[in-house]
Each structure stands twice: as structure tokens, then as C-alpha cells.
Design brief:
The complex is a heterodimer of chains A (354) and B (374). Chain A is mainly alpha-helical. Chain A has one domain: ABC transporter involved in vitamin B12 uptake, BtuC. Chain A has 15 helices and no strands. Chain A starts with a helix and ends in a 23-residue tail after the last helix. Chain B folds into two domains: 73 residues, no CATH class; 232 residues, no CATH class. In chain B, 71% of the residues lie in helices and 2% in strands. The C terminus of chain B is likely disordered. The interface between A and B is large, with 55 and 56 residues.
Amino acid sequence: MEVIQGIPVIGILVGLVVYLSEVVLLNGPIIVALAAPLALGAMCGVMNERSGVVNIGIEGMMLTSAFVGWFVASSVAQAFPAEPHPFFGATPALVAGLIGALLAGMTLSAVHAWLSISVRADQIISGTIINIAAVGITGYINLLLTQSSPPTAGKFQNFRPPSELNDIPVLGDLLRAVLAQGPITMSAIVLAILLQIWLFRSRWGLRTRAVGEHPKAAETVGISVIALRYRNVIIGGVFAGLAGAWFTLDFGNSFQSGMTNGRGFIALAALIFGRWHPLGAYGAALLFAYASSLGIAIRTSPPAGSLGDILTSIPPQVFSALPYIVTIVVLAGVVGRSIPPASVGRPYEKEAST
Amino acid sequence: MIARAGRALILPASALVLALVVGAIFVIASSPLITGEVDWNLPLVAYLALVKGSLGSVSGWIETLVNATPLILAGLSVGLCFKAGLFNIGAQGQALVGALAAAAAGAAVAGSPPVVAIPIALAAGFLAGGLYGLIPGALKAFTGAHEVVVTIMLNYVAIQIIAWAITGPLQAPGASFARSPDVGSARLPTILATAGHELHAGVLLALVAVPIIYWILARSTVGFEIRTVGANPDAARYAGMRPRFLTMLTMSAGGVLAGLAGSAQILGVTGYMPAAYATNVGFDAITVALLGRAHPVGILFAALLLGGLRAGAPAMQIEAGIPVQMIDVLQAVMLFFLTADIIVRRIFRLRKVEGGVDELQTVSRTYGGQTTAP
């Protein structure tokens, strides 16, 4: 080790690898938290694209759900003030907000489903409409509300893992990163596992994949392509709603205009990087969250020595842009091509109806 | 000719009318938050203020044209890409990068005579936008990465590039906030002015771009190839056209137009580039291109309409208390009715109308990375 670090370049590279892995332990909880909306958004994408519908509107669905969740929670909190329940600090207001967020996600998904399945409109344009509408409507109402500054309903609290975990060296840190989280962040992990099993081990999953790959073949064996697509797109809205609720009920407790800040689009990239698998998407979400947290880590605790000098001399904007650049690199297939479901983006027309 | 133009207008006009109706309902529903009670007259007050602010005076007209200028250019960018079956959501980023380049070049030649400085600054915006458009074009052509996600990512990268440049190498010394130095003589000349409102020459650039793009699309060989690739990539390849080259060319050309849109804003309106340059031009451009059916003349009128809405929005905010985000709501509803044209057809009892967005269906069909029809 002494000899290797004597050579400057290799020494710095070794130091970089060591530092980058330290960041994982240091920033573990924040990485897991930041990955949640990306993973949930990507699972909305899985539900859509596995059944053959492109959804560019995840960003708008997340933004709207974030707003509705916060707005409902804040209104209910004013009407029924309550002490937080020991279970994740839940109050009636927060639960109502969560339900509101899920309904908002499902409503927008229903619009997207109708436009892309029944109207057979261009699905990317349909998603774009949802994005523009979300920015407009939430910005509009938020501006009017902030004039009267409604009180916050607070947020769900993080689970406190047992303190014995601190005694286990590396594994304890990793476990704590997963366990010391709010309910929505935790649900992302559970849902990713469940969706993976449902998609590849259940009848519904087989049918969904059939509809996404070859709708005509699916129709001939008696699967209703239209009905299944509707159902999946609308259920997908639940995931987008959860992702939105994460912003205002789990990670933060207030709403700002445009606060999703492109996370819905990064979720799409996580979906592609994860090759349309829920668990793959979750892994990709962790990678993107890691890239976002790297800038924070370098600012707050840079490594010592010349490596620290090099890293701190890189402009912080490079790290802010990192998740987006990683996404482009992934899309360009530098890390292996991923093949989407064959019928994605194509509206389905029954033979008889033409 | 007139009959055809009339038919093409029915659907966008109906979508606008329906959007105003839905917008009015939205305003009435939100009126308790504005005036404290349900105010049935509020939509009327708002729309009148909107019209007055955009068309009611010479200053209003100037503001409409100033707002429409980048929308025409960026709308042509999105529209041109639509013709090739490409969805350029990245006009936003291309405009930002073009604006940054124009601001940097303009500041560098700020002392030279305008005849030299203006072309140099515009050329910088032209090139920067074109190169930024080439990235998604080349990635699509050679790796199949879909331009929609790539351009969205590049929009966010552009924001960081600007934040870095303006707080770093390009920061004007001594300014009270982070901004680039003044573009000086690279500023576009004013062609019409009232008290506090100036119409810069960038509008001429936009108006010249319309017939040029029209000619390229309708009369030139490359325009024919672009349209063929957009309508049927397989047929295009069969006929010996080069889809890869055309994809890169069209995305670059789209980038150039968006880059010019950003440059016109810097050289004509602000005169410098701030670190956080707030603009909506890339997303408004999508509405403009869809509303104008990706046709250059349609885009011109759609940009004037949206420019008018943007110009009138501040007056609406002051006089009726309606937030300017109302324009986004109207846009989204307008696009909704344009896309779901069966609603419009049923309400207005139209049978044969043109102007739907169905001809743009190649866009999401290529999302799966395959260009062949099922």
C-alpha cells in the first residue's frame, strides 16, 4: 500500500475509490431516501411501459401528487389537529394527504390512459400535456395559497432502528441506511420486490408482459388488451402518487413550485437503465441518488490531501449535472443496450374495429 | 387556398375557445382564494385585462411581438423536428446554451462596431445551439437513445452549465448579482419604441426564418427527405435516403433555431445573461408547434397568440389577481383539446377537419427504438 501510494496518480486513484465507497456509508440514509421517488416513479413507468404505454408525464404526476398531498394534509391538519401516532408519526392529516396524493396520481393517469389508449393520441404528447398542466395548476394554486400561508401538517417521521446496529461495523451502517427512513421511502423497497415478483411470477404479470410485447397475440388468447392497459396505467398512477407524496409528506413538509425538478424524468432513465425490471430500476435509482449525493459529500466532508484538493476544485455544478449526464450515458447504451417492450408507444387497435 | 386555411384553423380555434371556457371555470373555482368569495365576473375581468395588456395599446403590441420572437424561432425548431418524426423537448436547453454563447461572444466584442459585433454574437448562439442539438441527434442516429429523454436531460445540464459559467469565467466584475458583462454594441437595434417598451430587431430575424423554413421543408430536396423520414422511415431508407444523417441534420437545425431564440432574448431584451435565467420558451415552443401543426405559417400565428398571452399575463395578474401560471393552464387545456379532437368534433359538430395532431404519431412509435411499423 505504501509503495502504491508513493506513485502520485495511482495513489490518488486508490484514494478516490476508497473515498467513493466511504461516501456510500457516510451518505447511506440520504442515498436510500433520494432513491425512493426515482424508484417509485420508475415503477409507474414499469406499469405503463410493460403494458405498452409510454409515460413521459411521470414528472407532472409526481408534482401534482406532491402538491395535492401537501394541500390535503395541511387542510385536514387545520380542521382536525391531532397528536402524531407512534407509528411513523402518522396523523389523520398525513394519512389523508397520502390518500389525496395517490388519488391525484391515479386521476392524471386515467387522463393519460384515456388519451393514449382510447383516443390513440401520441403518447409522448399526452405526457407533455400532463407535465405542462401540472406546472401550471400547482404553480397557480400554490401562489394563491402562499399569500395566506397555510400551516404545514408536518411529515411522517423516520423509523428509529435499534441502537445495537451501531455496533456492527459495515453491515450495521448499511442496515441503518435502509431502516432509518420514513414510511414512503421504505415502501419503495418493499414495492420494488413485490412488483418484481408480481410481474414475473403471477398470471397478471404474464398477461401484462404479453400485452406489452405482442398485443395481437394476447388478444387472440382472450386477454382484453384495452382493459388491461387501462388498469395498469391507472394503478401505475399510485406509484407516481407515492413518489409525489414523498416530497411533501416524507422527505420534506412543504411544497415549492416545480419542486420535483426533473426527478420524474430521471425515473424514466432509471426505468431504462433497470431494463424495465422493478428491482433493476431500484438499483438504477440508487446509483442516481448516489450521484446526486456525491456533490453534498464533497462539500461537507472532502477527503484529505491532494485528492481533496482535486475534488473540491471541480465546480459544484459538475456534481449537480452528474445524474443527468449519467442518464445520457446510460441511454446511449455505453453500459449495454436495454430493449424496451416491443409494443411500447403504439396504440392498440382491435382488428374488427378497423 | 383560403378554404384550406379555414379548415386548418377550425380545430386550433375551437381548442382555444374551449380552453378559455375551461380556464374561466378554473378561475371561478379559484376565485375564493383571490377575492374571498365566488366571483362570477372574475374570468371576464381577467380575459379583458389579458386582451388589453397584449393588444390594447402600442406598448401591448410591442410586448406581444417581443414575446412572440423567441416563440417563433423555438416553435420552428420543435416543428421542424416534428416533420422528421423527432420530438425536440430540448429547445429549452438549446435556447439556454445559445443565449449563453451569444452573451459570451457579445461581451467579448462589446467594443466593436455593431455591424461586426451583432453577426458574431448571433453566430455564436447559432453554433452553440446547433452543437447542443447535434448531441441528441447523433446519439439517436448511432445508439438509438431516444431524443425525448436525452433532450430533457440536456435541459437540466444546460442550467448547470450556465450557473457554472456565469458564477465563474463569465461573471461580470462589480455587478450586484451574478451576471455576464454587458453585450454593448452587440445589442440588437430597436426598431420601434414607446415609453418603457422597445421592439428589437430580433423579430425581423424570426419573421425571416418563417419563409426560409417553409421553403426548406416544402421546396428543397433535403426538406423532402426530412418529411419522408418523418412519415415513413422504412420507405425513406428504401429510397436511398440517409435516416442517420437526416436525424442529425434536423436535430442540429432545430438546435440552431432554438439557439437563435435564446440569442435574440439576450441581445435584444436583457443585454446580459444572469446565472439563473428564467425562461419558459422551450415548453411554450412545444405548444406553439403543436398548435401550428408543425407548419411554419401555423407556427407564426400560434407564436403570436402565445406571445400575446404571455404579454398580457402581467396585466391580468395586476388587474384581476390571477397568477401568470394561468397561461400554462390555458396551454395545457388547449393542447388537451387539440389532442383529444374527438371532443372538439362532437361539441362543435364538425365532421371533416384538419389540424389534429395524429400526423405526429411517428414520435412515440420510435420510442421503442424500432422504426418499423408493427
